Amino acid sequence: MTEIDAKIDALVPSWLTLPDVAERLDVEVTRVRQLVKEGQLIAVRRGENRVLQVPAEFIGDAKVVKGLAGTLTLLKDDGFSDEEMLEWLFTPDPTLPGTPAQALRENRGTEVKRRAQALAV
Q1: At 57, is the secondary structure helix, strand, or coil?
Q2: Beta strands in 63-113, from DSSP E residues, in sequence order
Q3: Which keywords describe this protein according to UniProt (predicted)?
Q4: CA dist., res. 81 & res. 61, Å (int)
Q5: How many Cβ atoms sit within 10 Å of the Cβ of residue 70?
Q6: What span, in angstroms and rounded, lies between the C-alpha atoms of 100 and 109?
Q7: Whole-model pTM?
Q8: Cα distance between residue 65 and residue 41, in whole Å
């Protein structure tokens, strides 16, 4: 396990495999792969078998958490790697409060996007 893997594992409380995500979203696994490819979800290889997994917090009530795709686009435009995006989304921010991922789940996406945009400056 690399240092960044260990850091992300420490930050992200729980993970879902792509089939689990597909089940929660009530779609085919191919659709989940498409969401990852389109940058609407982040999946990273984890564990012994290096299975693609998505943070469980990204999936709300049978849909991807509102505001996540836009936030990921902003971070990618700022040059963030998937690992850096995960680190940013799951690192507590006392000004939010909580983590950006929690804020998105609580429908506070505007605040999260404002912070993501500020990173570009």
Answers
A1: helix
A2: none
A3: DNA-binding
A4: 27
A5: 15
A6: 8
A7: 0.92
A8: 10
On the 0-12 / 13-18 / 19+ scale of CB atoms within 10 A, 6 is exposed
Residue identified by tokens 């902003």 is: 74
Asked whether residue 33 carries a pLDDT value surpassing 90, the answer given is yes
pLDDT band at 105 (very low <50, low <70, confident <90, very high): very high
**What's the whole-number mean pLDDT along residues 20-45?**
96
- Alpha-carbon gap, residue 18 to 23, rounded angstroms: 9
Contact present, 64 and 25 (Cβ < 8 Å): yes
Q: Which helix (H) or strand (E) holds 46?
A: strand 44-46
pLDDT digits (tens, 9 = 90+) for 72-96: 999 999 999 999 999 999 999 998 9
Residue 50 is part of which domain span? 3-119
Tally of domains within the chain: 1
- Rounded to the nearest integer, the mean pLDDT of the chain is 93
Tokens representing 22 are: 């597909």
Identify residue 91 by its one-letter amino acid code: T
